[in-house]
Amino acid sequence: MKSYIFLTALIGSAMMWQACKNTPSTTASSAATPTPDTTTWLVVAEKGGNLLFGKKIDFDNLPKLLQDTLQKLVLAGLPLPQKIRMDCKGEVLMGQRGEAQTLLQEALDAANVYKITMSIKSTNMVENFYAWYLDKLNNGEGYSLLANEADAKAMLAPELYQRLLKQEKDGELDADYFIQAQDFDKDWGNIAILDTKQSGEHTTHKIQLGNAKKEGATGMGPRLLNITVVSKKTGWQIEKVEAID
C-alpha cells in the first residue's frame, strides 16, 4: 500500500530530528518536531469522494488505512495525536459523521495500546502502561481492561488473561488486579521505576505509583508493585502484578 505524502514527510522529519538532536543549535530557537495534531486527516464528503491526507479512499478501507498510518507513526518515534482531526464537505448525514468519528477514535485507542506493547525497553512498557491505565481510571468511566478483549489480549500474557477472566467469572476479583487495590489515587499517575531484575525474556520491575514524600489528592499514600513482563514477537506483555506491602 502506498505511503501517504504527509506521513512520509513526518517520518523523514523525525529521522532528521533524531540525527541532529544532539547537535548544538546555532539559532535562538529550533524547529519543533512535527506532529499530526495540526493537520486534518480525514475529509468526509457528501457524495463519496472521502479523502485521507488528500487522497481519495474507499470508506470501507478506512480502519486498515488508519491502523497502518498510526503504527508507522509509533515505529518512527513520532507522537500520536490527542485527537484525529476530521472535516466534512457538503451536507454529510449525522450517521455517517458519527461512524467516521467512531472509527477515528477506535483507531487511535488501538494505536495507544500498540505504542505500549511496542515500547523499546521493558521499563518504557511499564511506564507507558501505567500512565495509560491510570488515565483510563481517572476519566471516571469505570474502565475495565478485561472488558476490552482486544486491549487485554495485546497487553496481557495469555495465561494471565485467561486466569483473570476465570477469576472475574467466579467472583474472585475483589480488587483491581493491575493496581492491587480497590481504590486509587489520582496522583498515582506519577510512576517511578525503583528496581529491575531480569531473567531471560522475563523482567520484573519494582515500581512506585505516586509520590512517597506526600499524600495524594485523595489522602492515599504511594502504591508499590512488582510487575513482571515478557518479551514476545508481538511486543511486551504483562505476566504478573504483585503488591508490595
Q: What letter string, H or E per element, gives the SSE order?
A: HEEEHEHHHHEEEE
Strand order of the largest sheet: 3-2-1-4
Q: What general outline do the C-alpha atoms trace?
A: elongated
Assembly state: single chain
Helicity range = 25-40%
- The termini sit apart by 52 Å
Mean pLDDT over the full residue set: 84
The structural class is: alpha+beta
Tally of DSSP β-strands: 8
Rg measurement, Å:
21 Å
| Share of β-strand residues | 15-25%
Number of helices: 6
Description:
The structure is a single chain. The strands form two sheets. Strands 3-2-1-4 form a four-stranded mixed β-sheet, covered by helices on one side. A four-stranded antiparallel β-sheet has the order 5-6-7-8. Strand 2 and strand 3 form a beta hairpin. Helices cover 37% and strands 21% of the residues. The relative contact order is 0.10. Helix 2 (62-75) runs parallel beside helix 3 (94-117) and helix 3 (94-117) runs antiparallel to helix 4. The chain has six helices and eight strands; from the N terminus they run αβββαβααααββββ. It has helices at residues 5-20, 62-75, 94-117, 122-138, 149-155, 158-169, and strands at 40-45, 51-52, 55-56, 85-89, 191-199, 202-209, 223-232, 235-243.
